[in-house]
Design a protein that fits this description.
There is one protein chain. By secondary structure, the chain is an alpha+beta fold. It is 43% helix and 17% strand. It has three helices and four strands. Helix 1 (32-43) packs across helix 3. It is globular. The termini are far apart.
Length: 82
């Protein structure tokens, strides 16, 4: 559905339903957690997200959450989105 696609700017869209990021209409493959992170940022654009919120959103209860991984995901998203 069209409402599942969010525009980050004129060049970048993100389809929340299938977690597809497109830059100038070219799909960019995101890792699962990068896509989850981007979804969270987009859904809560005007909120300050705590570290705990990010960690609990990205990692299931049976997974080991990692600060290093979180930093890497954010860095990767910044590289793609700017």
């Amino acid at each position: 559905a069209p409402h599942d696609t969010m525009s980050l700017d004129a060049h970048i869209t993100f389809d929340v339903s299938n977690l597809t990021l497109k830059v100038d209409n070219t799909p960019v493959q995101l890792q699962n957690k990068e896509a989850k992170l981007l979804t969270l940022f987009l859904q809560k654009q005007n909120e300050i997200l705590s570290h705990e919120t990010l960690m609990s959103h990205l990692w299931e209860y049976d997974e080991t959450a990692s600060d290093d991984a979180l930093r890497t995901y954010i860095k990767n998203l910044r590289k793609i989105i700017g």
